[in-house]
Amino acid sequence: MIFAVSSIAVSVLIGASAVLVGLWGRRHAAQLVPSTLPADERARRERVLRRGAWACQIVGALFAVAGVLTTLW
């Protein structure tokens, strides 16, 4: 039983961490792109960072849900 609880806790912790990193990445994508790049390249890299942050949020949520579901099954 203790293994099940620790498995849920670890899965949820890793999933929540990934979601938080994704949220931070989406909010700060503009600051993470170097300002020395041309405007079109800056915009492209910003979109790429936002897309990666969105993927990080999705994977984090799926990881947390999968950890809980596999433990309950």
Number of DSSP helical runs: 3
- Please state the CA-atom Rg, rounded to the nearest Å: 17 Å
User: How many DSSP E strands?
Assistant: 0
Assembly type: single chain
The helix-and-strand class reads mainly alpha
Strand residues, percent: under 5%
Helix and strand pattern:
HHH
The biggest beta sheet, please?
A: none
Shape: rod-shaped
Low-confidence stretches: none
Share of helical residues:
over 70%
Residue-averaged pLDDT, rounded? 92
Instruction: State the end-to-end distance.
Output: 13 Å
Keywords: Membrane, Transmembrane, Transmembrane helix
Q: Please, could you describe this protein's structure?
A:
- There is one protein chain.
- The protein has helices spanning 2-27, 29-32, 39-72.
- The chain is mainly alpha-helical.
- α1 (2-27) runs antiparallel to α3 (39-72).
- The two termini are 13 Å apart.
- The model has no long low-confidence stretch (mean pLDDT 92).
Can you give keywords for this protein?
mainly alpha; single chain; 0% strand; rod-shaped; 3 helices; 73 residues
Short description:
The chain is mostly helical.
Layout of helices and strands:
Blueprint: H1 2-27, H2 29-32, H3 39-72
